[in-house]
Amino acid sequence: MGVIERKEREKQKRRQDIVDAACEVLSEKGFATATVDDVSNRVELAKGTIYLYFKTKEELFMSVFIKGLDNLLDKYRETANLDLNPADMLDRLALSFYRYYKEDINYIKTAAYLLHEDIMEKIPPELSNEINHKAGMTQKVLRDVIQKGIDQGDFIDVDPRQVARILWGLSIGIAQTMVMRIHLNVPEDDVRELLVSAFNLVKRGLLRNQSGI
Predict the structure, then answer these.
(1) Residue 112 and residue 176: Cα distance in Å, rounded?
(2) Residue 49 three-state SS
(3) Which residues contact 170 (CB under 8 A, 6 or more apart)?
(4) What is the pTM of this model?
(5) Contact by Cβ (8 Å): 199, 93
(6) What's the CATH architecture for 3-208?
(7) 100 neighbors 172 (Cβ within 8 angstroms)
């Protein structure tokens, strides 16, 4: 490996270390009280070094949200590559989101803090566009499964884009609601059951042959 390649890998690793530390800080303190100094202390890097990678606090913590979207997209794509019919694929995608919830709950917590108008107004347009793009890519996996079901005659003729948005909204809403209720000791199995039930309700509305449920 050449010097340039090694330096680039070191740079990317340092950036990821900063994002991971920011995720931990944000999930513990919330956006209002979390600071760049907190992240600096957690990752053991100078505050100035962090500002070499992220111009503002908002940009730093939004990068945590983008990393979470990347993780979810990886899980969805992994599931979409399985040899399953569209109806069964929707079931597995519900479980993929549940796996994301269990493994990456800190990213879901950050979304609850960050997706507010006053914060979104402070991030650069390119970062906002990246968030929209990543969310769109995740919804595209859902949309492609629904379109395949329509093409194969398994699903009724609907707008797959709208159904994908419904499934996306249900998933995010369930996850964020459960995060807010963690302090009430809601069993995690409830999250799995809610996600599976939500996807199954939508699937029932899509299937041409209801006996196939």
Answers:
(1) 7
(2) helix
(3) 195, 198, 199, 202
(4) 0.83
(5) yes
(6) Orthogonal Bundle (1.10)
(7) no
